[in-house]
Amino acid sequence: MHYVDPCCFDRRCTHDQTDWLERGAKHCAQDMIVLTFLFAGQDSTAAAMASCLCFLTASPRCKAKLLQEIDDVVGTGQLKWEHLSQMPYLDWCIKETMRLVPPAVGFARQARGDQLLGGKWRIPDGTPVIVNAMGMHYSKALWGDDAYDFRPERWEQGAPHRFAFIPFAVGPRACTGREFTVVEQKITMVKLFQNFDFRRPAEVQPEAGYTTVKCGDAKWLGDGFKSQLKNQCNKFRFVYVYFMLGAAAIGPGKVLPLLVALSGCWAQLAVPEDLECERGPHAAVWKQVKQRFRSLLEETPGALFNPIPEEKLKTVVDETIADVKAAGGFERTSTDECGYGKLALQLLSVCLVSDPMAVAQTVQSAGESFASPVLTLLLDIPWVATALSGWPLFGLLAQVSLRKAGVLEGIVDLESIDGVNKGSVYFTAMRKAMVASDLTAMADATVKYLDNPDVAGDGGALGALTALATQAAVQSNVQERLNLINGLQEAMKKAVHNSQDLDLMLATRWPLWSLIHFTVDAISVAPPPVKA
Ligand code: HEM
Known about the structure:
By secondary structure, the chain is mainly α. It folds into two domains: 3-263, CATH 1.10.630.10; 295-309 and 346-525, no CATH class. The protein has 26 helices and six strands. The strands form three sheets. The chain has a two-stranded antiparallel sheet with strand order 1-2. Helix 10 runs antiparallel to helix 11, helix 18 (383-389) packs across helix 26 and helix 23 packs parallel to helix 26 (512-525). The longest helix has 30 residues, at 29-58. 36% of the residues are buried. Protoporphyrin IX containing FE is lined by residues 36-37, 40-41, 44-45, 48, 103-104, 107-108, 167-169, 173, 175-177, 180-181. Heme binds at residue 175. Keywords: Heme, Iron, Metal-binding.
């Protein structure tokens, strides 16, 4: 049974809760779940929709565009499920509203172990921290000079960073209703606009006793929060992190790593505990799953550079689901369940998707609960830690990539994704070597590519990354290989900022992911290097 402290923060507490029991705070989990669904589920969505109507009413241009979209896609008829994905402008309006008026302006987390953030913020173990979502949403450094304006079109490019837009929080305790609420909001907005028009009255008289808070005056939030929390929880030490004012002053380069750490329950800055899944409640089953995935990649002939046959993938996916289900590993009762294992299973499952539209947006369409952990593992967790966990992340990504490029061939302009043209010497040589799984030929082609100024640059950024990955793959000195792996991860961080970027990079026909798998996975079977 999980008990909840009356103080606002301890819903997140990961420590022993029995002391709260003794103090008589005996709200049991079931009560809290019902309350959470009532308040989290109803109030927040209502607030978001009310704000959206306000913005649209205040902005006739945006409202006209939205009405046009609803007219074109749904008309006056019955709204259908498939209509929802055909109305990007509606999606942008909802996002833009939750950016400017996030129903939850911030959220609380608690430090798991002592933390040193950005080399200077010391956060002792157990310290509760407020993450200021609204501050992040208003950062001009991230969103541009018009950060305070309602401009749905900005979403055409997506968020400027995957943690720049966090109305639902992020990490393992993010909102479980996020997909649901967006659908709910879209349906309601369409129904409303199909039947009503909303206009601003000629004159608005604020009701007596009410204060109008302008978005630009966001500082009130910090002080308001501070005193409220102080009153409620003054027996705790608090660190107040104000992104709202701080973000603009210290710049996103410093704010973002800080936010990454805060918003992911601290698990994302340092390597999460038990990445290898050896201590959870179903550790034995996950160990088996890991071994099964590894064998699939290691024992299927040619699997390093070629797609594994679909039937084989399906068998492994089905068997894994059956085993984990039988052990109760999918039940939401345990917070310690193997996240990496579940993600690996999802990655393998997406290889079975054949609809080109879905394949083109593998990561994006799988939703934030998939995209966010994949990006975190790829960009924030050192690749060496992944290697040591034994989970073959890059081998699975290589399979996704091989599958994706195969399905999209002839449908999407893969040449422009790869940054090549028909005469690309390096690309042609690499592809030829790939079919033959010939690493030596890849190494030779890479040496020629790097040595020849006429060919160097052939293939753009992906060609350069592949060359780096090939160098790392054939590097026998462990320390040198580690340096190259770190270099590769840094290069990946520069190239991939969000799920769209990752989807594009996964559609490449360069053997990039296979080479990274070959390079990184070697560490998981070799003992870690001894530090000099
Ligand atoms: C616009 C609508 C919504 C917004 C902005 C929103 C925002 C959030 C945020 C920021 C959190 C994290 C709170 C924290 O960490 O303290 C959260 C948690 C949660 N939300 Fe939502 N939410 C919305 C709609 C919903 C809906 C519709 C449901 C249910 C149907 C829902 C269910 C939950 C639950 C159960 C949690 C707790 C998750 C956990 O602790 O693991 N939310 N929400």
